[in-house]
């Protein structure tokens, strides 16, 4: 049985009005009397009338949909960003279509091109850890597709970008470990391709330099897939532990939570002796064992700001030529569990 909905023509026929009058009444146009508007709206509610989004998009040449590309929806940070995106998008009359790259350039490119073929009005994207060539995005952007980058952004792409203050977040976390008495501080991080990796590495190095601690490259371990592959993460931990670090600064959500599990699996006796500070937006940080000091990003706000910027591009009457990079502050949340005689 085919589901059928009432149309403007059905309402017009039932009320003995023209379709144009019904259409204007539904849009609350000034030229329609209040009495007629009430009549039309009451009948529309009675028959459960809903505007046809396909007809609307054909008429206005817009789909009222926004594409989103993230590495993984299950990631605490990205799930919170998506919540922020949806909060703004739905309020402004847009639907969102979410795709995951799984840190794969090939998957990212396929997803973006599929979304573009479905006539999305704009794209919000955090680049995958494998992505180096963004010519495919330049091509779509050059053809008129509005694009806003967030979190993981390219350097040489003229559009709006929304990021966290990665340098300060990394500096604060590393300084916290140093002030807690740590001197051999390792750094577990993402792919070297990513902007967040470079910015957080600089923050880590700056904190070491401030306290006259030499930077040792062997204490930095890169996970090209950001902890999505457990074997890769476990290998990085196995390479770090023989260097006897007394602290580890970790640069991303999945790596931070995954590192604790990898340490317990690799060397349970050592796991509780190493202080950890890392980026994570998990709401369960207080349950982690060993405890960790976390750097929280304003993920929800990042999603909101990025969406506002994208919609401003979509709805602009003229081509947008001036862009900005919004930098949002992070928050250092110190753990309250004592380690020895000190709180970290």
From TrEMBL:
SMART domains the UniProt entry points to: HTH_LACI
Chain ranges of the HTH lacI-type domain: 6-60
Keyword Heme part of the UniProt annotation: no
Gene3D superfamilies: 3.40.50.2300, lambda repressor-like DNA-binding domains
Domain of life: Bacteria
One Pfam family hit: Peripla_BP_1
Keywords, comma-separated and alphabetical: DNA-binding, Transcription, Transcription regulation
Organism: Pedobacter petrophilus
PROSITE patterns: HTH_CROC1, HTH_LACI_2
Transmembrane segments: none
InterPro entries: Cro/C1-type_HTH, HTH_LacI, Lambda_DNA-bd_dom_sf, Peripla_BP/Lac1_sug-bd_dom, Peripla_BP_I
Taxon lineage: Bacteria, Pseudomonadati, Bacteroidota, Sphingobacteriia, Sphingobacteriales
Protein's name according to its UniProt entry: Substrate-binding domain-containing protein
Domain HTH cro/C1-type: 7-50
GO molecular function, one term: transcription cis-regulatory region binding
């Amino acid at each position: 049985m085919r589901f059928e909905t009432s149309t403007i023509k059905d309402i017009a026929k039932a009320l003995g009005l023209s379709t144009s009058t019904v259409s204007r009444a539904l849009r609350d146009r000034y030229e329609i009397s209040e009495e007629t508007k009430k009549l039309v709206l009451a009948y529309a509610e009675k028959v459960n009338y809903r505007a046809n989004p396909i007809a609307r998009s054909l008429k206005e040449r817009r789909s009222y949909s926004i594409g989103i590309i993230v590495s993984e929806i299950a990631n605490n940070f990205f799930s919170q960003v998506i919540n922020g995106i949806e909060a703004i998008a739905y309020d402004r009359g847009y639907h969102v279509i979410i795709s995951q790259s799984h840190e794969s350039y090939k998957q990212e490119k396929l997803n973006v091109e599929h979304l573009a073929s479905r006539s999305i009005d704009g794209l919000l994207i955090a680049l995958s850890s494998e992505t180096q060539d963004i010519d495919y995005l330049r091509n779509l952007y050059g053809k008129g597709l509005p694009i806003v980058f967030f979190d993981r952004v390219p350097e040489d792409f003229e559009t709006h970008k929304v990021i966290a203050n990665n340098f300060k977040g990394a500096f604060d976390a590393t300084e916290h470990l140093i002030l807690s008495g740590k001197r051999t501080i390792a750094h577990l991080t993402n792919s070297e391709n990513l902007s967040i990796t470079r910015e957080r590495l600089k923050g880590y190095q700056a904190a070491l330099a401030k306290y006259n601690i030499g930077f040792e490259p062997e204490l930095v371990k890169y996970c090209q897939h950001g902890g999505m592959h457990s074997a890769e993460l476990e290998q990085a931990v196995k390479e770090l532990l023989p260097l006897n670090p007394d602290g580890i600064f970790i640069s991303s959500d999945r790596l931070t939570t995954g590192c604790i599990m990898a340490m317990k699996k690799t060397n349970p006796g050592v796991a509780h002796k190493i202080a950890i500070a890392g980026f994570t937006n998990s709401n369960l940080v207080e349950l982690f064992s060993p405890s960790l000091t976390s750097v929280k990003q304003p993920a929800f706000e990042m999603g909101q700001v990025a969406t506002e910027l994208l919609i401003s591009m979509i709805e602009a009457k003229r081509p947008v030529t001036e862009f900005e990079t919004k930098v949002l502050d992070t928050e250092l949340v110190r753990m309250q569990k004592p380690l020895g005689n000190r709180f970290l």
